[in-house]
Amino acid sequence: MKRNGSPDYLLYAAAVVATLFGFIAIWDAGYAESAAQGAMIPSGLYGQVFYGFIGVISAFFLSQLAPAKLKKLVWPVMIVTCVLLVGVLILGKEVNGATRWFRIGKFSFQPSEVAKLSCVLFMAAGFAGLKPWVAPKVRGFGDWIGKVGFEKLVRAWPLLPILVVFGLIELQPDLKTGMVILVTSGIIMWAAGVSRKSFAILGLCLLVLAGAAIIDKPYRVTRLLSHSDRWSDSKIDSIGFQTTQSETALAMGGVLGKGFGQGRAKYTLPEPTNDFVLATIGEEAGLIGSLAVIGLLGFIVFRLYTHGMQRIDRFEKLFLVGVSCWIGIQTIANVLVANGAVPVMGVPLPFFSAGGSSLFALWLAIGVSQAMISSPNVRIEQGGMQKDEGEPSVRRAYVR
């Protein structure tokens, strides 16, 4: 892929292209709404450009740090994240029944977006340092509880702060962001070497937790149960409105699209620049344009994941794999929602949906990823054999 010890300039380029085209998509999708208010530029675009600018600057400085120094920052970063999540519940601006944002003048900040990065960083550091599991001899169930069950719970301690973050985010309430964090954390554990049995148990616990969170909020149950008949006369103009309008826009776009600025979704969808920005992209640029956007994001995911699998340092490996899965999960979820395959979740399309906090967090992740990529701990191919450069590391499953 790249020369050892240097940043991945293709990754930088892909992120820049995605950000710039995201600006265009937000302006195009939000033009109708802003024009109705007598403005040429959607108000959300100002914040997007601002956060994009400071995100790129921050990414550059983060990319200059050594991974060892970044690893020492995981606890301070997690503590600050929890403080911000508590603070937003007390001082945050309530919008549509949710308290997720700090509002400063015309700009807002959503701590839960940065929490995604904090959790990936914490999980990578926490599971990187675990020793290989040596199964003890046990006699009976009681002995198993003490020697295996309890010990495995202790080894899974990095999950505790993640669950605290999830709980604070759910109080906002914001289940979809919490689920992105939990699923990404689970994938990091899988990459760290969690056994299939342990992973299945964790997956079951995750499903129970998600189910309880859904049942706790009646509107979530209604949204889930109403999705299958969203096209019915009783729902198409109410709970099914966003999804059906998005599906219609994508269908009308066909293969080549209606042309830039010619779509109707921006006139019918509420807040078309956010979670349903793909509806305008698909309607105006067609299937080709939609696939280009998905392909660009897929390329970013591929680069990050490939770099991660090349690392011999477990912290670097788990972080890069975690960031790639975070972006991949959000992309898949957003596309499925826009196509009506799943109920509305409110997951932004990375780099393209309006949301300065999301864009800022993504660029911070790119910066930290480049710091990992630039370190010398990488496996390279030589004459058909793998050679390790940098510090030696055991590359077997650690968390059985």
- Briefly note the structural class of the backbone: mainly alpha
Taken from the alpha-carbon principal axes, the silhouette is globular
Beta-strand percent range: 5-15%
Our measurement of the CA-to-CA distance between the termini, rounded to an integer number of angstroms, reads 31 Å
Kindly report the average pLDDT value.
86
Rg over alpha carbons: 22 Å
Individual helix count: 15
Return the domain count.
1
Order of helices and strands: HHHHEEEHHHHHHHHHHHEE
Percent helix, as a range, is: 55-70%
Largest sheet: 3 strands, antiparallel
Report strand order across the widest sheet.
Answer: 1-2-3
Low-confidence stretches: 381-400
Please count the beta strands (DSSP E, at least 2 residues each): 5
Description:
The chain has one domain. It contains 15 helices and 5 strands. Strands 1-2-3 form a 3-stranded antiparallel β-sheet, covered by helices on one side. A two-stranded antiparallel ribbon has the order 4-5. Strand 1 and strand 2 form a beta hairpin. Helix 11 crosses helix 13. The protein starts with 8 loop residues before the first helix and ends in a 12-residue tail after the last strand.
Descriptors:
globular, two-stranded antiparallel ribbon, disordered C terminus, three-stranded antiparallel β-sheet, 400 residues, mainly alpha, 15 helices
